[in-house]
TrEMBL record:
Stretches the record annotates as Disordered: 208-278, 305-325
Listed name of the protein: 3'-5' exoribonuclease Rv2179c-like domain-containing protein
Gene3D superfamilies linked to this entry: Ribonuclease H-like superfamily/Ribonuclease H
Pfam family, one: Rv2179c-like
Polar residues bias: start-end ranges: 215-224
Coiled coil segments of this chain: none
Single GO term (MF): nucleic acid binding
Domain 3'-5' exoribonuclease Rv2179c-like: 9-199
Length: 361
């Protein structure tokens, strides 16, 4: 079952006087504190912002967007041009709103008898990764004020909705699946509420159609194969799990010694037939779990295989024992250590052999 969200979720929407920029002049700001599991609205904020104040703080406008504002939402633009709420005042209202919502989240959980969420953080939702969240951060920077949430808690409504569409083929931001809009389009508060409505629908979609918990919902039972419990080629889960023999028991019954730790065999790698074929047998699945018996091999430079030693069957060419093994003292946790006497002896023999080769005619 999905755990209830413990964070303070706030939907943000801005009306701006420029589009293709990271720092547009803001003319209206709205935020809604909501329960992301149910869509319940818990609190809201909506305030006009003086266009003149936004421009005085370095935020910009463009003629195309101003022309669009005059045609589509002239009342919002006029209110911004006439209002006395400066950009810093509007930003301060938003900061206080976020902190108040945080305290409310904790109070609601205590009242419900739930533990205080020490990981609870403000999650600020905007419709687009390069839109409202980026614009509001530019406004905070222009006012030299601290953003009251972490950068990694900037959330994107569009990303969630498009991901659900990619997985289910359902786009809840568009008709006929979109919920009915309450209020005017391009009104900041109405846009917040509409975005919350279809975000909650999209977010709950995968859970509403999730398969009901069954015998395999908690994973395979002890002593059964996890491979056998997986669906194959998109098919449904098997009716029962298949028991497996543990490697130690299997090799003991066959008279085979225990494998050397840390060695793996290519027999463990699943082939296309073993991985994806519906007709795979249990014997093929066991190859994925039973490691092959490996023998530790000592190699030196002179033991590296050449075309002559690899293919002509002259095994005697690779009989040299090579340098002593590099040993690891795991008990003391001290890492790799050479056996000093063996290593010095090996170097001495190598030097002696080199001198003999140099002296020979």
């Amino acid at each position: 079952m999905r755990q209830k969200d413990v964070h303070t979720n706030i939907m943000l929407d801005l009306e701006c006087a420029a589009i293709n920029t990271h720092n547009p002049a803001i003319i209206e700001l709205a935020a809604v504190y909501f329960d992301i599991d149910t869509g319940e609205e818990l609190d809201s904020l909506c305030t006009p912002v003086s266009l003149q104040s936004s421009m005085e703080h370095g935020l910009i406008t463009d003629d195309n967007t101003l022309g669009w504002l005059k045609r589509e939402i002239p009342q919002t633009l006029q209110t911004s041009q006439e209002c006395s709420i400066s950009l810093p005042q509007a930003i301060m209202r938003l900061s206080k709103f976020v902190k108040k919502a945080m305290r409310e989240t904790e109070a609601r959980r205590v009242k419900a008898g739930l533990p205080k969420p020490w990981r609870s953080q403000p999650m600020i939702w905007g419709n687009g990764t390069m839109a409202d969240n980026t614009w509001i951060r530019s406004a905070y920077k222009a006012c030299a004020m601290e953003v009251p949430w972490e950068y990694y808690n900037d959330m994107c409504v569009r990303t969630v909705v498009k991901q659900v569409w990619a997985q289910t083929g359902k786009d809840y931001s568009l008709k006929p699946l979109a919920p009915p809009r309450q209020g005017l389009k391009h009104d900041a508060l109405s846009d917040c509420r509409f975005q919350i409505a279809y975000l909650v629908l999209a977010r709950n979609e995968p859970w509403s159609e999730a398969p009901k918990p069954g015998s395999s919902a908690t994973g395979p039972t002890p002593g059964t194969s996890a491979v056998a419990a997986l669906p194959v080629n998109g098919g449904g889960p098997p009716t029962s799990s298949t028991a497996i023999d543990y490697p130690e028991k299997k090799m003991a019954s066959e008279g085979v010694g225990k494998p050397t730790a840390g060695h793996h065999s290519t027999r463990q790698l699943p082939s296309p037939e073993v991985s994806f074929s519906k007709g795979s047998t249990q014997a093929e699945y066991d190859l994925l779990t039973v490691p092959a018996v490996a023998t530790r091999v000592h190699l030196s430079k002179r033991q590296l295989l050449t075309p002559e030693t690899s293919f002509n069957g002259k095994e005697g060419d690779c009989e040299d024992e090579g340098p002593p093994m590099k040993r690891v003292n795991y008990r003391l946790g001290s890492g790799p250590e050479w056996q000093e006497e063996e290593w010095l002896y090996f170097l001495e023999q190598e030097a002696k052999e080199q001198r003999n080769n140099n002296q020979s005619p």
